[in-house]
Amino acid sequence: xxxxxxxxxMDCAEGRAANLPCNHSTISGNEYVYWYRxxxxxxxxxxxxxxxxxxxxxxxSLIITEDxxxxxxxxxxATLRDTAVYYCIVRANTGGFKTIFGAGTRLFxxx
Amino acid sequence: xxxxxxxxxxxxMGMTNKKSLKCEQHMGHxxxxxxxxxxxxxxxxxxVYSYEKLSINESVxxxxxxxxxxxxxxxxxxxxxxxEDSALYLCASSQRDSGSDTQYFGPGTRLTVL
Lengths: 111, 114
Known about the structure:
Chain A has no helices and nine strands. Chain A is mainly beta. Chain B is mainly β and 114 residues long.
């Protein structure tokens, strides 16, 4: 079973920030939080990941709560091309490298 | 460069055919993965190769046979498939040895079994 829960869908106005939440209350100390997105029928695209600290790159910011039980992906200025399914995954970097995708959040960016 | 390539993009095959899907990466990654994705569902892990050895097989039927000829290539051999095997097949790779092990995905092969 997936170790993350996300809203099924969200809407965002173009140009506004999109804030996508993810709960991962059973996360282990050695598990990272990864975010990917998938635009229709394409391969998942890596966005960002983090362990404890907040992270930012050219695509997005990742805010992880202090207890690490939840996180939020922030797209600062959403565009129509950001419409996609966003997956939050927790994954250890040791052992078998198993990856389990949850159902994800379908983000609709509207003009 | 974070590119993973997959061929073919689309494949249509009958239930008695034998075909292969190919995946290639030139990032020096030592782990490679096969996922299966049905319509409107998340990807499901099928196989993981680590240093060219099969490390995870998620109870996949034997009609799917993975092969890792070298560290850059990953094949998925298909034989006697069923119509319910029609799906998007995704390949991914990751470095394996870094502190975080980001997977990079290819564009997928859309498989239709008639």
